[in-house]
Design a protein that fits this description.
The structure is a homodimer of 412-residue chains. Helix content of chain A is 37%, strand content 26%. Chain A is an alpha/beta fold and 412 residues long. Chain A has 2 domains: 172 residues, Carbamate kinase, CATH 3.40.1160; 145 residues, VC0802-like. In chain A, strands 3-6-2-1-9-11-12-10 form an 8-stranded mixed β-sheet, with helices on both faces. In chain A, helix 2 runs antiparallel to helix 3. At the A-B interface, helix 1, helix 2 and helix 3 of A face helix 1, helix 2 and helix 3 of B.
Chain lengths: 412, 412
Amino acid sequence: MALIVQKYGGTSVGDIDRIRNVARRVILTQEAGNKVVVVLSAMAGQTDRLIGLARQATPMPDEREMDVLLSTGEQISVALLSMMLKSMGVGACSFLGHQVRILTDMAYGRARITDIDTKPIMGCLDEGKVVVVAGFQGLDPTGSITTLGRGGSDTTGVALAAALKADVCEIYTDVDGVYTTDPNIVREARKLARISYDEMLEMASLGAKVLQIRSVEFAKKYDVPIHVRSSFTEDEGTMVVREDEGMEKVVVSGVAYSKDVGRITLTKMPDRPGIAAKVFEPLAAADIVVDMIIQNTGADGMTDLTFTCSRGDFGRAMDLARQSATALGGQKVLGDASLAKVSIIGVGMRSHSGVASQMFQTLAAEGINIIMISTSEIKVSCVVEEKYTELAVRVLHQAFGLDKPPVEEPIK
Amino acid sequence: MALIVQKYGGTSVGDIDRIRNVARRVILTQEAGNKVVVVLSAMAGQTDRLIGLARQATPMPDEREMDVLLSTGEQISVALLSMMLKSMGVGACSFLGHQVRILTDMAYGRARITDIDTKPIMGCLDEGKVVVVAGFQGLDPTGSITTLGRGGSDTTGVALAAALKADVCEIYTDVDGVYTTDPNIVREARKLARISYDEMLEMASLGAKVLQIRSVEFAKKYDVPIHVRSSFTEDEGTMVVREDEGMEKVVVSGVAYSKDVGRITLTKMPDRPGIAAKVFEPLAAADIVVDMIIQNTGADGMTDLTFTCSRGDFGRAMDLARQSATALGGQKVLGDASLAKVSIIGVGMRSHSGVASQMFQTLAAEGINIIMISTSEIKVSCVVEEKYTELAVRVLHQAFGLDKPPVEEPIK
């Protein structure tokens, strides 16, 4: 008998018919001889409606009260699914964050789970019941409700799976798995049978929005196998698992991209220690996330300093960069907000050389100019002009053979 | 420094502007030097929307899960008011049933409060904060959410006032007080400055739906003064208080009516012990609330047995009465679903005689036939044909001088 945690996202519980579909799926899983813990998000649109109410109330809602407000969304979902399961003759019990108890720190709106009391859930499972847990919410040490941030229900699912030592955490969403790249751009994109946690982290942070990054970090830390799949089909999805030897045979697992890239260059900055810190301190203070940073070796005591940020932050980042350039004696500030980042990802890169140069050659062959490059152990990213995004993704997908089935062993 | 509990109903928090109005009122009360505990209902319409969702999910929703669902309504209200108060610079803190903690029995959907832990609230009040409590909800001994039944927020307000030893519980609603009768029927109806708990109980159960009956019983038991008033005006409303000597000078305080009356008569039933029990047992088992019961002294070993019930139950009650008549050897069953009950209420009746006969004479003078009569210490009710309802209310209102200001002392 396996213990399975199933997490259903907002679209999967978007209306009563879809919740009924979830109920059927849960019952089938239980009837197959498994213990089932279900984690639900709020019905699609509900969280946005609540945020709208709060914004009407005040432009800057108090964070503690915001969590009291937002946590009602998941509460509604779990009540509806539980009453539906019971009406279908299946023992079920809903649990809210304060009932499980999912303990967190006091960082309202972005709380981190510190502990989970699995006893109440195990008790219910031992009685043969389906346990239905509200995702996204927890309880802080003062007894106040907290929420885990957007997409936090993924984290609830994985954290519960870790705490309960579940065999798998199934994440049901509106896509049926993780693909080698965006199927909207490359028709030949293939669904991956499995992918390592690290690859998934790179994919997610690069814009493949299938799983919340924190939930993958959690799964990696506690070695929880995640099965990303669709609630609208019976097909197997993608297993996100610990890296194994078979995975290294595949050099590149996927091609990711992000069109949300702005680049800012401060030219002829004094090339001495402490300058970079002085440029990036004000950006950090303004909560601007800086992605890539490049500083070339300088000449004549001067150097160019370049970084990228999201387009939403671009205007503010330009202002701050201009202030820094003036204060520190730089020459001028150049900015370009219409860029994109294209990346190849694969744990196989660790043991294969020449991957980066093959990427550069492939782009060059199409006349695509590379503006910036950054690399990690399992990823190479190139910033290019936005208009080349789709072309770059297509040629890289083909160049690394992602349209062909992999050599790796199939999942048992 | 007084401690005031203010309870605002669904229409008073019906939208963001109305919640803002509540916030202003709360702040004024605090600025006048009072400690304020606010109890909120769900925004008008919200509970019905949630019930609609549940009915879509299943025709017979599980009661425990229904309470999980419904309690979100008040949770949204308290979060919105608290964030609004904080944005206006007033310290505030929301409390849900499980945070206060308002402990109840396990009767989901109609739970009774067993205990309230006032410590968290007193702590907040001592810090100078406004405490905002979700009405209608509690926590059972197993840690599950319960609700107190429709209008249960009134009970939350009064129970909190009792537990906190508050000076008054203000109940804000969409009417500005308790009237001598329905102003829609009698233009001269006067707002009562005060009324006793017992009179209020009779008024409420007779159809003046200003306060939930249970909250008045609670207030009477713990001697909590209730101030019924409107959130849309600054006017004083009606104080519902312990009976005092001044009140007895007023013979009749109000005229109530209910058009929701059906009458059923079982003719020529055997006049022997146990017959009535056999007639009413099946009605009770079918959850039919029987109001008045009349059995005249029999002749020839036979008697007529008459009772009233609400119109919604009339059809089922007729069926059951027919079965009983057949089984017990009665003659026939007569029914009339188009009746009304008109009542005069006043604690002064205890010390004044002739009140009932004055009522009968008044109705007779207008040619209104009295079909049934029932009396209590502080109430006389007459069942009449429905078409006479408004006329009967008007003439009784005038006959007992309710259009004139009372002789009693004004409230200090």
